[in-house]
Amino acid sequence: MPIQNLYFQKLPVYESLVREAKRMGQPQFHLKNLLSNKNRWQDFSRRQAGILLDFTRQRLDKTVMDLLFQMASDLNVLQRFRSTVQGQVANLTEKRPALHTAARDFSDTRLLYKDMNVTAELAKIRNQIKRFASEVRSGQIKGSTGKAFRHVVVIGIGGSHLGSEFVATALAPFSDGKTSIHFLANVDIHNFGLIASEIDPEATLWVIISKSFTTVETLSNANLVSTWMESLGLDPARHMVTVTSKGSPGDDPDRPVLATFHMFDFIGGRYSVTSAVGGVPLSLYLGYDIFERFLKGAHDMDSHAAGASEEDNLPLIAALTTFWNTSFLGYQQQAVIPYCTLLSRLPAHIQQLNMESNGKTATADGRLLEQPAGVVIFGEPGTNAQHSFFQLAHQGRPFPIDFIGILRPFYAEYSNLYQGVTNHQELWANMLAQATALAVGQPNPEDPARHFPGNRPSSLIILESLQPEDLGRLLAFYEARTIMEGYLWGINPFDQFGVQLGKTVAGKIREKIALKNSNPDRQIDYQDPLVRVHLQRLLDSRPD
Ligand code: F6P
Questions:
Q1: Residue 83, in any domain of the structure
Q2: Which site among 17, 144, 154, 441 is 20 to 30 Å from 2 CA-CA?
Q3: 242 and 386 co-located in one domain
Q4: Do residues 144 and 172 share a domain?
């Protein structure tokens, strides 16, 4: 198999950036010195599309930034992003466009794909969601025993779960408190058991979300729920809706449910929260109008990402900092630390969005890479993260951080002062302190245990507030940034073949377990002794 350097490594600007990375490693370019430059703020901050990006604490200067812009331009990153939004085939391995941006385009732009006017079709589905959510929320559509629906449970995993959970958590202050939302993602019975103990089944609407309708966890859970509902004397069909691809096994008129909403192959799971995947559960939970406001914010950021010049383009600048940190400065990890409890599920969503998109070992045109692409993403809300893994952030292996701050919180009525400041001000003091302390450090040659090396990069991403529009902008910022990172690395950010092998192996193990279940006396003949030893303990409860 031909092994390939990443395409960007062949460009002349690559060698210049390699040289600059060496220069940035010299002590005089420590962040504490870079930060004392009087133009630092003007040069390395941008306020666009409702978001302020402060990248003053990244380990770069104007020379580096100019070379990075040069690289983006040599690789046509923005042009490729624009073509993607316009419906060109961006997912090369699967030969289809990637049109999640069309899900929040309220214009009458005609985008044709396989004889379908994509924007018109997606608008039709939004109307279907609006009508259905309003009928459920007003009590016009009821459960099989006549009770109004008060609980919504999403059955779905990965892209059919994480986006809606992140948004539902972030927009919880907009809930009227009449409908609760739960997420049954894991095939782990504890997930179901806990939800079952919290809901009234007669007043529960199950939203089964699966693009393929072949995902075993989702089908296993849907089956479990049906059986459970029947055992309670309830008609599962009158308590279920599906969100799935047209013609999938879940889009079966012979197995009716209350409603079916379609998703399409041109929107990947991890990019799908602004389609029916997020639309159905979020509109049931919060009302359609809140969902639409969220979409409009996402569209604002899409317009910025596709329209702004390189120098002002927030997703591009953020993508370039990741690219610089990973491919030139050698950082393999990146943390996402929202200083906002409402964004507690953002890191989990970005993990899938970014790592499933860019964790690749082949170029977009099908050649094996010398070094795999992608970056390891993790995160927790601040200040909690400070009391958890920030020891390592300050003194152990360094990793770049996205600090996310919200200027105006909800609940401003609770403005108690402690040590002269409100809770929200204390939160901000901590976020700013962490970014500064990581960058500047504090040398202590006498006492290595108390030595802070500093020079640890981070960016601040600041939102005005957490209105649905702000959240939409934040989501679309991370989506566009992820795609632009993929275009810089020369990989396809829209496929995910890497998840298949584990599924196939699980299938083989499942077959053995099913055989044993059907005949408990059967000896398992699984060839791999290291798997067999565990299965024996699981199935026979045999001591070692
Ligand atoms: O296993 C990964 C994956 O294919 C994701 O890409 C996807 O979001 C998730 O599984 C769920 O897939 P589906 O919506 O088809 O059930």
A1: no
A2: 17
A3: no
A4: yes
Atom number, ligand 1, closest to the C-alpha of residue 356: 6
pLDDT for the residue 5: 62
Residue 475 and residue 293: Cα distance in Å, rounded? 13
Do 138 and 167 lie in one domain? The reply is yes
Ligand 1: centre distance to CA 475 (Å): 19
Q: Give CA–CA dist 241/152, Å, rounded.
A: 10
Which residue's CA is the closest to the ligand 1 atom numbered 9? 158
CATH code at position 337: 3.40.50.10490
Residues with CB under 6 A from ligand 1: 157-160, 210-212, 215, 218, 269-270, 356, 496, 499
Q: Do 227 and 130 sit in the same domain of this protein?
A: yes
* Cβ neighbours, 10 Å, residue 527: 8
Averages of pLDDT over runs of 10 residues in the chain (544 residues) are 64 94 97 97 98 98 98 97 97 96 95 95 98 98 97 98 98 97 98 98 98 96 98 97 94 89 97 98 98 98 98 98 96 98 98 98 88 94 97 98 98 94 98 98 96 98 98 98 97 95 93 90 80 86 52
Question: Which residue has 């013609």 as its token pair?
Answer: 247
Domain with 52 in it: 12-74+308-495
- Closest ligand 1 atom number to CA of residue 244: 14
Q: Are 340 and 350 in contact (CB under 8 A)?
A: no
- If phi over 0 gives left and psi between -120 and 50 gives alpha, with beta otherwise, what is residue 441? left
Total of domains in the chain:
3
Same domain flag for 34 and 56: yes
* Percent over 90 (pLDDT), the chain: 88
How many Cα atoms occupy the beta-carbon half-sphere of 166 within 13 Å?
A: 32
d(CA 482, CA 82) in angstroms, rounded, equals: 14
Instruction: Kindly provide the b/e burial profile for residues 394-419, where b requires at least 16 CB atoms within 10 angstroms of the residue's own CB.
Output: bbeebbbbbbbbbeebeeeeeeeeee
pLDDT at 110: 92
Please report, for residues 8, 67, 328, 487, the alpha-carbon distance to residue 18 in angstroms, rounded to integers and kept in the order given.
12, 11, 6, 19
3-state SS assignment for residue 374: coil
Judge if 220 and 120 occupy the same domain.
yes
Give a yes or no: residue 263 inside a domain: yes
**Residue 543: its pLDDT value, please?**
47
Same domain? For 459 and 517 the reply is no
Here the tokens at position 480 are 């566009």
Burial of 536 (0-12, 13-18, 19+ CB in 10 A): middle
Measured at the CA of 333, the angle between CA 307 and CA 167, to 5 degrees, comes to: 55
Nearest protein Cα to ligand 1, atom 16: 210
Do 387 and 433 share a domain, yes or no?
A: yes
Residue 76 C-alpha to ligand 1 middle, in angstroms?
30
Expressed in angstroms and rounded, the spacing between residue 215 Cα and the centre of ligand 1 is 7
